Amino acid sequence: MISMAQSSPQRDPIVFTDEFVECSRIVKMALDIIYTLEMNLIDERSARSYMYVVDFGKKWDIDLLSSVISKAIRAAMKDCPEDAEPLEYMLLAWKMGDNSLASLAFSENSYEWIPRQAKYSADLLLEKTSVDGRGESTLPLNFQSEQIAPFAGGFQSFGGPTFDLGASCHQQFLQIPPTIVWIILKSQHLAAHDKDKAEDHFKRLMDNACE
């Protein structure tokens, strides 16, 4: 990154201080994107790490990271819609401040919620902070509005579209910022009472929220 410096102060020694944003896993993921202009497939697990990569790019003013991530999300939704992770894409787009991309992800509603036990356990979704996967330290959720309720896992899920929030498991629900939860519900409510699509309402409300 020193070779990317634009001024003398930027060539000072780089000191990483954040336990998670600048852990070895996130730094490696960021450097892989910088050097190859490519990235691995974003799934429910890796999306949690890429959220930190976006934070890393913001901290070090590396706009390229968000640019490549946005391009990869658009390509995934266009080329492999059946493998899309629209919730993860929407949250990453929100993190990058890309409301158009967030709206595009919101419009992709083919993915179905399924019971957590049929997917991964919560622990398996947590990646180690170290590149080699050793040690006890894991990356926490990049955003979590509150602690997971102990009773939440006892409720049956019947599945449903991605942004049918009532079908989500509690852990995934808590990863969505409250304002975005409201925007999702408000968009769906408005679309049920007028001729505009929910994603159009979503984009407008997201833009208003960012003003």
First and last CA, distance: 32 Å
Provide the helix percentage.
40-55%
Overall average pLDDT: 83
Number of helices: 8
Strand content: under 5%
Elements, N to C (H/E): HHHHHEEHHH
Largest sheet: 2 strands, antiparallel
What structural category arises from helix and sheet content?
A: mainly alpha
Rg calculated over all Cα atoms: 18 Å
Regions with pLDDT < 50 over 5+ consecutive residues?
115-121
Number of strands: 2
The rough form would be described as: globular
Strand order of the largest sheet: 1-2
Detailed description of the structure:
The protein is mainly alpha-helical. It has a domain of 133 residues. It has eight helices and two strands; from the N terminus they run αααααββααα. A two-stranded antiparallel sheet has the order 1-2. The longest helix is centred in the middle third of the chain and has 17 residues. It is globular and about 55 Å long. It starts with 23 loop residues before the first helix and ends with a helix. About 3% of the residues have low confidence.
Short description:
It contains 8 helices and 2 strands; from the N terminus they run H-H-H-H-H-E-E-H-H-H.
SSE layout and pairing:
Layout (H helix, E strand, L loop, with lengths): L23 H13 L9 H14 L3 H17 L6 H11 L2 H9 L4 E2 L46 E2 L8 H4 L4 H14 L6 H12 L2
Antiparallel strand pairs: 1-2
